[in-house]
Amino acid sequence: MQICKNYYHAKKILEHNLDNNYKKIAVVGAGYIGVELVEAFKKYGKDVTLIDVANRIMPFYYDHEFTDLMQEKMKADGVKLELNSKVIEFKGTNGKVTQVITNNGAIDVDYVILSVGVRPQTKILEGICDLDEGKAIVTNEFMQTTNPDIYAIGDCAQVFNKAMNKKMPIQLATTAIRTGVTAATNIIRGNVLKSPGYTGANGISVFGLNMASVGISVEAAKKMNLEVDSIYFKDLDRPEFMSSTNEVLFKVIW
What we know:
This protein is α/β, with parallel strands linked by helices. The chain is built from 5 helices and 14 strands. Pfam families: Pyr_redox_2 (PF07992).
């Protein structure tokens, strides 16, 4: 079993991907990292099962019109989707995992990767600077905490979400990089660089599909008790008179 959080984890996963002794792979967690890992293992001819407690993949960033297409592509490529499946336990012998037990049954495996998201590990800062209800670190526009000697960046820190008009963590690599640049500049030069805010812009290219989103999906809005409307339509990526065109699917939410 292996978690997937950093460069060293990725190196270990690559070693197992190249090892022909590991044929049956289970990926737990159908977010960005999980879906990308599934494609990587399929390219090396592995028997891959993707497990998630949600009823579809990547539910926070994309609505069903887009994830349905992705799931069809994955199934066509031989990926086994175990959705609506809660992991109950792992079984193994001699220190190696052999089965993943879910509420829907047992899955035989040689290797398991956990890509189930993160929660802020900020207990050490309790009483030192303010944390929100989810234990993320409260920051200002300079990425400075309520303790003026401490700055916070990345997945554990609040940022201003322009699409939501509120402060909250946006757990994306692009956000982590930008908050790092902002904090480093302000630590070195004084608070001279304000964060412009974030929209959660993201993209993924797997199984022959290029997908991108910004803001939040309709499903995510409903979970936040927001009233939204939307329109879904198809168009071409280039004018019709061009030598080649591709169909693009759009969804606009307001």
